[in-house]
Design goal:
The protein has 14 helices and 22 strands. The protein has helices at residues 15-24, 58-72, 92-105, 115-121, 144-157, 199-202, 263-267, 281-289, 293-296, 310-315, 351-370, 379-385, 395-407, 415-420; strands at 6-11, 30-34, 50-51, 78-79, 83-88, 111-113, 130-136, 140-142, 161-164, 167-173, 176-181, 184-193, 211-222, 232-235, 240-244, 248-253, 259-261, 273-274, 303-304, 320-328, 335-340, 343-347. Strands 5, 6, 7, 13, 14, 15, 16, 17, 18, 19 and 20 form an 11-stranded mixed sheet that branches. Helix 1 (15-24) runs parallel beside helix 11 (351-370) and helix 2 (58-72) packs across helix 11 (351-370). The mean pLDDT is 94. The structure holds flavin-adenine dinucleotide.
Length: 422
Amino acid sequence: MTVPDYDVAIVGAGIAGSTLASLLAPHARVILIDRDVRGLPGSTGHAPGVVAQINTLPVLTELARRSVAAYTAIPNGFDNVGCLEVVRGADGKNWIQDRVAVARERKLEHSVLTTKEAQSLAPAFVHDDATGAIYYPNDGTANAKTVTWHAQDLAAASGATLVDGNVTSITRLGQTYTITTSDDAHTARRVVVATGVWAGQLCPCLASRAVAFAHPYAFANRHAPRTRMAPFARFPDAVMYVRDHGDRIGIGSYNHDPVVVRTAATKVLPTAYTPFQPQFTHTMDDAIRLLPPSTAATFAGRVDAQPAELTMLAAGNVPYGFTGVFTITPDGLPLVGRINLGMYAAIGCWVTHAAGSMRVLADLIVADIRGEDAPEADEWLRAALDPCRFHPMADVECESHAVDKYKDIWNKKDQAKVLAAL
Ligand SMILES: Cc1cc2nc3c(=O)[nH]c(=O)nc-3n(C[C@H](O)[C@H](O)[C@H](O)COP(=O)(O)OP(=O)(O)OC[C@H]3O[C@@H](n4cnc5c(N)ncnc54)[C@H](O)[C@@H]3O)c2cc1C
């Protein structure tokens, strides 16, 4: 029997695949394949990377906590700027009460602030019409590209092979997988599919479990460097968020009818960054209007960016918007684990959860290679992330739950009810 070239082939070098490669490379012969390993054409490439640890789902808090610890250890990997949840209107008090209860239960440091106190922390983000805020000092923003390149460097230093190639098929003969790219073929004993919004291409069984959504994001024009970066802010009633990128402000919004990007459409997308879609113009204008007028003015004259212009626009001083594409699962948890013999998924891992969930997967794969049991302490995480957990559910139902998750991205609904419905 021929020995495969590698112990593990990882397809997709975004933050998930690259982090996994760095964790596996010291223990196994690893190949990491991507259409453009260093270019990061996937969702990782321009993600704003806000990392909030609070979540009504304990699994997501745990993964976020572990991810923050991992990113903090990487030079320039994480800016511990904190997170403000800013509320408006009379209902805001209920949000704060509920969040305080969750934060206490999860032992997350937090403090309830008046509007004035919130304004002193983030004057550019908090309008006078806010009715209060809650502040989480240990949250922050991950530099997704820096983290991913760092992981790639670590993987290479531990002997992993990193190659550019468009994987066209994955086939299995006996215990060996052949991963065919447009101009090469590699064999491996195990394969991990970490292909982000393209999950359904190589693994059709994941298509309806990892639903791709279009999401608008915009940058203001440049501001003078600040001595202290503001916390990122989320506005739960308006489902929008805003962050300071150091030299300019960025804003994203979920306050629109969710736009699913189907597998047939992702198939022809060279990157997860698409032109700004005019249907999001009002959404973004509404979000920007919630900011103090002097900040809102920095988005005036915003241009609709084309994907090829993103790097050039980022270097310039023109406000611009684009449409990113990312994946959401029916219950909002990543799909991470074994799909079948020797085949694993690492899909739907947000920047917030990527490092934490890839450690869980790396431990599982190393245990499989050694013929041992994976760490018992993480069994609850492996069970929650099991990529086959939606198995009997109809595709249409999976998509409908994923759509609900987009609308309720910060888990405002009672999660016990949401999960019971699955
Ligand atoms: C606008 C925007 C805002 C976001 N905001 C946040 C945020 O604030 N916080 C947060 O936590 N997350 C955020 N996200 C989500 C986050 O960026 C993604 O969930 C995460 O980056 C996904 O990483 P990944 O490694 O799974 O996938 P990707 O980064 O998409 O990587 C997948 C890789 O697979 C490769 N690939 C696919 N198919 C093939 C193939 N056939 N052959 C070879 N290679 C292939 C692609 O080239 C790509 O590099 C945001 C995303 C976007 C777009």
